[in-house]
Amino acid sequence: MSEQFIVEVASEQHHHFAEIICAEMESSAKARGTGIAKRSPDYIKKKMLEGKAVIAFTRQGEWGGFCYIESWSHDKYVANSGLIVSPNFRKSGLAKQIKQRIFNLTRMQKFSV
After folding, report:
1. Cβ contacts of residue 85 below 8 Å, gap of 6+?
2. Mean per-residue pLDDT, 24-51
3. Domain total for the chain?
4. 87 vs 3, 31, 49, 55, CA distance in Å?
């Protein structure tokens, strides 16, 4: 797919995508029969506000994908979590772009490891 994507750190300006992200996470988990944890739109918005999320969309503004940073044990452990790509853009290479951006963002965060 020759679609051009914008992949950036998510912020408050992206809150309107939170419902879509949660719905797609749930739908994808059901379709695959996986036990992906269900997240609320408020949780997704919180990750955006903390600067611990990456979002992708087309230049026309259509949502394309999302991923966030999860940490636990007082930030001793860190994972990139919740990677989801819109069905419209799967197999386009977008997941790789999101993974690279979230990996770089994770490295910039201050964790206790």
Report:
1. 56, 64, 65, 92, 94, 95, 98
2. 85
3. 1
4. 14, 12, 26, 15
Tens digits of per-residue pLDDT, 62-106?
A: 999 999 999 888 878 888 888 999 999 999 999 999 999 999 999
Q: Which two tokens stand for residue 8?
A: 């950036």
How far apart CA 15 and CA 21 sit, in angstroms, is: 10
pTM of the predicted protein model: 0.87
> Domain with 75 in it: what CATH number?
3.40.630.30
The Cα–Cα gap between 87 and 65 comes to 9
Domain that holds residue 60: 5-108
> Is residue 49 in a domain?
yes
Are the beta carbons of 73 and 79 closer than 8 angstroms? no
